[in-house]
Each structure stands twice: as structure tokens, then as C-alpha cells.
Amino acid sequence: MKTANPSWVRFRRHLQTEARQDPWAAHTRSCACLRGASGKGRLVVQINVCDITGLVADLRSVKEPVEVEAMEKAVELVEGVFEKMRNLLKPGVSEKKLATAVQRGLADRGSGLIYPGAVASGERTAFPHAQPSDRCVEAGDLVWFDVCTEADSYHSDLTRTFTVGEPVSRLKEIYDVAYEAQKKAREAIGPGMKCSEVDGICRLHIDKAGYGEYFTHRSGHGLGLEIHEPPYMVFESNVVLKPGMTFTVEPGVYLPGEGGVRIEDDVSITEEGCRSLTSFPLTDRLERSRWREATVGIFCFGQG
User: What is the pTM (predicted TM-score) of this model?
Assistant: First the structure.
């Protein structure tokens, strides 16, 4: 038996509660009220339409445990692909070949919906929404993968930045900046915080490091039945985070002509703070120091 969608179950409960408190309001908010009157062989119908887009969005933004579990399954599908990408990365492989491998990896793991894999390498990583090209990976490149999929109709969205060999010092620096910005935000996130504050933590750290103008997108977005849905981590949002809200945290720094870094993880608000749905390991600072010892090796930047 197919179970009811939790978002619509909550919506129905909301209308039932409202009906007990104010029957007329519930009647209006349920989308349409029809009044009919017959006269001279004609039926006259008056329709009052109520826009409940905001109500539905608010209800959908707070996830039930079963919805969060579905998103964790979707995260596991992507993390399995990241592990495969780490083994495939080498000089000479093209971005399109890597993107195809992402799609094949998701299919092999039983993903219900497969999106085109977003892959960029070298100087093209400076484009936050770059699509895969014929460019081939070179030693010293940064390479990022932005991968989405779904499980039981609920989505995950993760980005990891890898390096093939030893990148130049400026690219190491912007990685550290993006990493620290995300770490600070994740440690601070909790119920009662505004979305604008999450964005502010990421943006302030990057700005203080001197790269504020190179952080060109929002700090995160909600996840659920859609890849991008409320709440949005943007400076103008006064939405208050509540337990059950699930969203990405994804600061980035993008230097035109040089390269860019983004770290994107999925988190869920709890009563005490926030819980990461992501487990793919992060290369720690001690391991990153081994760049000096590497010739052409493969390292992973990401959040665990």
C-alpha cells in the first residue's frame, strides 16, 4: 500500500484544526467556495479562490522524521558516487566522462531520478553553475562535483571539491576560507536562528578573508520534494529555523580565471541544534599538509 505524502497529511490536519476553530476560514482556505443559484434555466456559480501557496510552503518546510530518513537515503546514494569519482579522477579524463560516470553510478545504486551531473575542473571551477565540457583534467586542478538525486521522492544535493595533485597556494587558501565559513555556520545553526543569520555567518567570514566579492550565491536552500525549496539562506530572509527544517549549507569562493571551491552539505534542524545528513569524509588539516609531499595524488575536500 502506498503511504500518504507527509506534507499533505500535515496540510489536511491543519485544515481540520482550522475547521474546528473557524469553519468559515477553513472553508475559504481550502481553495474554493462555490455558491449556486438557478434562474431562468441557468446555473450561476460564484467562485472565491484563495492562494494557499505560502501555507503549503510553510508546511512543507518542516519535515517529519520519515521525510528526513528519505533524504538520508538520497545522501547515501550521492556519497557512494563521490567515492567512485575519487578513484576515477586522474589527469586526462574529461569533465563529460566524469559526468557520465556520475549518472551511471547513481543508476547502479538504484537512484529513482537521475539528474545530469554538474562537473567543473581547473579554471572552470570559478563558474558556480558550470556544466560539464570536453575539458580534460590536468595535474594541479581543482575539480568539483555538484550532484543531486532522490529517494522515495525526497532529494539530496551535495558538492565536493577534489584536487588532482598539488594546487597552487591561492587555491589552497580559498579552500580553507570556504571550509571555515561552512564550519562556523554549521556549528552555530539551531532552532530560533534566522535564515539571514546563517547567510551572514558564511558571508562575514569570507568577506573578512578578503574574498567577499567572490562569493556570488546564497549560502543554502531548503530540500524536500524539490531540490530547491524554502527556506532559503539569504540575507533578506527573516524566516526562523524550526526543528525539522532541512537545507543545504554551501558557501563558496570563485576566482575568475583561476578556480573556485564550494562545499555543500545537507543538514536538518533538531531541538538542540542541527544534524548533518552527510557522512562523506573531510580531508582534515593534517592530511592537507601532505600536499607538500605529493606529486600527482588525489585529495578530497568536503564535509563529513
Answer: 0.79
At 262, the amino acid letter reads R
Residue 69 and residue 45 share a domain = no
pLDDT, tens only, 111-149: 877 787 799 999 999 999 999 999 999 999 999 999 999
Note whether 248 and 111 are same-domain residues: yes
Query: Which residue matches cell numbers 573531510?
Result: 282
Tell me the mean pLDDT in the region 284-295.
33
Same domain, 45 and 82: no
pLDDT digits (tens, 9 = 90+) for 177-188: 999 999 999 999
Residue 201 phi/psi, 5° resolution? -60, -50
Three-class SS state of 28: helix
In SS3 terms, 128-191 reads as CCCCCCCCECCCCCEEEEEEEEEECCEEEEEEEEEEECCCCHHHHHHHHHHHHHHHHHHHHCCC
Tell me which residue range forms the domain holding 88. Answer: 62-301
Burial of 167: CB neighbours in 10 Å, binned 0-12, 13-18, 19+: buried
Query: Which amino acid belongs to residue 59?
Result: L
